[in-house]
């Protein structure tokens, strides 16, 4: 493609209103144009990359037997009423009325449509399993669209839905999808992790999020470099420490701690380290008071507490409730002679002679030992993991990184099939609800995530798998006829094996080089003054490795290096 | 692809509510599923064919330098206000409000968006010409959606827009597009004609419609088989007859014609042929009365009258107006001593001694001759052409056929660039509005048009260029293990060179054959009883040519015949 006939409106200035690196580079490289908040036109470079990503997604879906369809954008309200989501989805669901005053949603996801589609066509378990997918523009009325394509209101998704007559089949497809997603995100060049996740608005139990590691993500991922281990910090299990040899238990002692209302203040007051203190909290678990002790430098993880107690609702007891039940203020609580059951974190379980509140305002005990001074109702993992601790799979020390969610796989179970009567006859002729899975890839978001992790301070560095063109041919001086002829001829030759962008514009060399770095194709071939000696310069965008190559050897060079 | 894992819900019964053959076959072949009036899910077969059509469109657009982009579905109202179409487009424009109560249109076409996009980025004529296109789902709230994908409310379009600094450039791209469209419709196997057309709501002057000839079209096309000639009957020029040798002019005579108020009645009364009569009409052309005579068997074409007079508005005079100005009733009008200018059709110009009304109720003249009995203010083409007449290009006798509009090319000129301030600096540094063209292909409609013209009474017959699969392998008896193994092996071998659908379902042979005819792949390979002797049956879907082929020769046979 000749660049003069392409539409790549690059910018010299860095756009000030862009909130993320990918957003900034996409604007600067002339890849997108905002038409309204969170609504963009995808310009030629973007469209080429999207087509490449879509093709990778399509191949991986086909490889696991996924069949492509295309469902409508406009969803009749009636179907969303059946699933209960016309109300539940809230104001993120875009809605409209047609000329006959009938209500429609603009599809943000297609569970209702696909379930309605199949309930009319699917009669017997013999037609199962079945996996259908589509790649399509979707709509979500984000309250605060931002980060360019990362959080838009109109965006491209691949969504797939699978249908099964038994759990084993659902599990098998879920595994296939998990692997296909791993292939997709590897192929497009993302450093990603699959993490267990909450299922959010869609509902269901088994689910993983595929997170591209990135500094601008909204979730924190605990991961190791040594294995594929990754978990949302909300879920990441803490290591259970080994019990130490029994320490000598010193005598329990009550000490005055006037004004001490935090672990930091206590450590200071007692002249000990923060990690030698404990923190006592009282929570209401489904209405019942419990006390939990964690180490002073740790942070309570309410999701783990809820999971431990298999509770529906948990909340911190209010100051008033605490004073009512414990007869002391929150800063002076402790387990000794506590009137509620006491649970301790694994890490407290290996401590001895530690300080706690005395349940008397202004007093703490020191040299507390569980077993001797109070009985524990249970020991568990009640806290957030911290960086540097061993990962659950023991592969190494966990690191933290923010992540951009680029994909998610769900086991929906019978949530939609039961709500919307998608049943089949099983082997015994009984009508049973169909088991479903749903699987999403944020295609336009993936593009942004790729840029977030493939760039330098001059611009984008496209992975070869998704690059809009393979090679950028540039004439340094467009008035040099010899160079221009050589470039035209290279353009033709290389064009037979590579996707080539040829910068034939009448711009200064500096502008061309800056644009070229910004656009970030894997290889650049510069036809400059060296052409007098039959030489061109070839430069790799990622390694910046540069070579003077005889023009007759360009194909050879690229064959060896590309 | 194994058919058991594909989703092709064919029907045994012919759907009763389908209004066109393509609609019927698409339902019966399990290709589409209606979700709401005019809104469909495209099932796997349809999606494969759409992908093929889209790829052909994309290639032809790329061949003429078109660059692919993707514009949003949601269009801010403000842009449609600028062009004046927020009001003008009427209730076919689907509209919605976002959570902040801002108005958006769901794009039926993208002139506003692309003009707004370019006005910020385009500064100089040097960046022109430029052609951008997209393939996208569009929305139009049809009052009466019907014919399946032919008139839907949500449909797939390829729309392209070109930008120019001078007419010559616009004309060149228009010609390129015209040729690309011809290639597209030829490649997908349509019998089409490019016809001059009115520009409808989009506005502009130069425009052609690409019509797929079909019995269910809504427009009537006059065309010849001998050339590419085609015109909407509203535009098709009538042949100008050669003047005959002067006939002897008989004496003008007034005759009583009581109760005669039509040409048919007049012919009957005078015992002459209808083609020997004339029809006199009085019209108001931009408010001025004129009289037009055409032959008795012809029909007045108001569009031609408007074009002849270059008039803004034309209408038939009311009975009251006629009696006021002519002192006679509509059935008795004539040119002799008429008080308004008289124009005659070319075909009347070669008549002599013809009857006309006498401008006295109940009386006609016979033996009227223009020149002698009245002066003509002009002679022109005022009527619709009829089948069998010579075409304007003299290539042959015109035939009539209905046509489905599958594409349209427009020269928009400066309509949008002036309304929305899309200007560039020209060679002389003056700011000038950009000339634009726009070019549409109805992708989903094209699919329907293909079926309308490629089928027999058993089902669809896909052209090879768009077929969802090349070859259908069928085992007649799925319990025959030898046949099944042979089929599996063929599936693998042929799969390396062809797209193969393998009907591995446990269905009766009759069901499989019926489905196969319905789905209509170019070649069918049946592995039946003959496999005992190593033979399979290969049948071409179009010619129905059938051959017994040794299983080792299948690839050879297809190589020679496909």
UniProtKB/TrEMBL annotation, chains A, B:
EC number, as in UniProt: 6.1.1.15
GO cellular component: cytosol
Predominant place of localization: cytoplasm
GO biological process: prolyl-tRNA aminoacylation
UniProt keyword annotation of Cell inner membrane present: no
Function description: Catalyzes the attachment of proline to tRNA(Pro) in a two-step reaction: proline is first activated by ATP to form Pro-AMP and then transferred to the acceptor end of tRNA(Pro). As ProRS can inadvertently accommodate and process non-cognate amino acids such as alanine and cysteine, to avoid such errors it has two additional distinct editing activities against alanine. One activity is designated as 'pretransfer' editing and involves the tRNA(Pro)-independent hydrolysis of activated Ala-AMP.
Domain notes: Consists of three domains: the N-terminal catalytic domain, the editing domain and the C-terminal anticodon-binding domain.
Protein's UniProt keywords contain Nucleus: no
Annotated localization: Cytoplasm
Gene designation per UniProt: proS
Enzyme class (EC, first level): ligase
Known partners and oligomeric status: Homodimer.
Keywords associated with the record: Aminoacyl-tRNA synthetase, ATP-binding, Cytoplasm, Ligase, Nucleotide-binding, Protein biosynthesis
UniProt GO molecular function: aminoacyl-tRNA deacylase activity; ATP binding; catalytic activity, acting on a protein; proline-tRNA ligase activity; transferase activity
Protein name according to UniProt: Proline--tRNA ligase
Domain Aminoacyl-transfer RNA synthetases class-II family profile positions: 49-463
Reaction catalysed by this enzyme: tRNA(Pro) + L-proline + ATP = L-prolyl-tRNA(Pro) + AMP + diphosphate
Family under the similarity heading: Belongs to the class-II aminoacyl-tRNA synthetase family. ProS type 1 subfamily.
UniProt xrefs under InterPro entries: aa-tRNA-synt_IIb, aa-tRNA-synth_II, aa-tRNA-synth_II/BPL/LPL, Anticodon-bd, Anticodon-bd_dom_sf, Pro-tRNA-ligase_IIa, Pro-tRNA-synth_IIa_bac-type, Pro-tRNA-Synthase_IIa_type1
């Amino acid at each position: 493609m000749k660049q003069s006939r392409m539409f790549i409106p690059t910018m010299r200035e860095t756009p000030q209103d862009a909130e993320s690196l990918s957003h900034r580079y996409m604007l600067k490289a002339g890849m997108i144009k905002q038409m309204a908040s969170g609504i963009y036109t995808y310009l030629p470079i973007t469209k080429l990359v999207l087509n490449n990503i879509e093709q990778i997604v399509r191949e991986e879906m086909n490889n696991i037997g996924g069949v492509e369809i295309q469902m409508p954008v406009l969803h009749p309200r009636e179907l969303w009423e059946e699933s209960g989501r016309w109300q539940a989805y809230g104001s993120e669901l875009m809605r409209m009325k047609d000329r006959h005053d009938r209500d429609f949603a603009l599809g943000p996801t297609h569970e209702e449509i696909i379930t309605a589609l199949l309930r009319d066509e699917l009669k017997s378990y013999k037609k199962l399993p079945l996996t259908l997918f589509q790649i399509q523009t979707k709509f979500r009325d984000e309250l605060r669209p931002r980060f360019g394509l990362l959080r838009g209101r109109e965006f491209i998704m691949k969504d797939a839905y699978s249908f099964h007559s038994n759990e084993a089949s659902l599990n098998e497809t879920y595994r296939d999808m998990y692997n296909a997603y791993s292939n997709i995100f590897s192929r497009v060049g993302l450093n990603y992790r699959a993490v267990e996740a909450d299922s959010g608005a869609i509902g269901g139990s088994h689910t993983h999020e595929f997170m591209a590691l990135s500094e601008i993500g909204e979730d924190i991922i605990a991961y190791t470099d040594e294995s594929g281990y990754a978990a949302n910090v909300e879920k990441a299990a803490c290591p259970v420490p080994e019990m130490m040899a029994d320490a000598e238990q010193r005598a329990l002692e009550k000490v005055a701690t006037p004004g001490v209302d935090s672990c930091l203040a206590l450590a200071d007051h007692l002249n000990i380290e923060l990690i030698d203190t404990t923190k006592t909290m009282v929570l209401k678990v489904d209405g019942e008071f419990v006390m939990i002790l964690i180490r002073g430098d740790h942070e309570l993880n309410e999701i783990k507490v809820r999971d431990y107690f298999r509770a529906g609702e948990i909340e911190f007891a209010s100051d008033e409730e605490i004073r009512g039940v414990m007869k002391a203020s929150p800063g002076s609580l402790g387990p000794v002679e506590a009137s509620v059951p006491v649970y301790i974190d694994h890490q407290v379980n290996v401590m001895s002679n530690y300080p706690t509140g005395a349940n008397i305002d202004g007093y703490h005990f020191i040299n507390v030992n569980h077993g001797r001074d109070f009985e524990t109702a249970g020991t568990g993992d009640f806290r957030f993991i911290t960086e540097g601790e061993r990962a659950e799979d023991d592969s190494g020390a966990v690191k933290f990184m923010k992540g951009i969610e680029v994909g998610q796989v769900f086991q929906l179970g019978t949530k939609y099939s039961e709500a919307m009567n998608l049943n089949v006859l099983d082997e015994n002729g009984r009508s049973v609800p169909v088991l479903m899975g749903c699987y999403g890839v944020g295609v336009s978001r993936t593009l942004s995530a790729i840029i977030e992790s493939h760039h330098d301070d001059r611009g984008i560095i496209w992975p070869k798998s998704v690059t809009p063109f393979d090679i950028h041919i540039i004439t340094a001086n467009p008035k040099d006829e010899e160079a221009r002829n050589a470039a035209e001829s290279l353009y033709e030759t290389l064009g037979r094996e590579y996707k080539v962008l040829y910068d034939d514009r009448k711009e200064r060399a500096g502008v061309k080089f800056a644009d070229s770095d910004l656009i970030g194709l894997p290889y650049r071939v510069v036809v400059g003054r060296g052409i007098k000696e039959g030489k061109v310069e070839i430069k790799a965008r990622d390694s910046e490795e540069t070579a003077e190559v005889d023009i007759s050897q360009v194909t050879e060079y690229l064959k060896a290096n590309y």
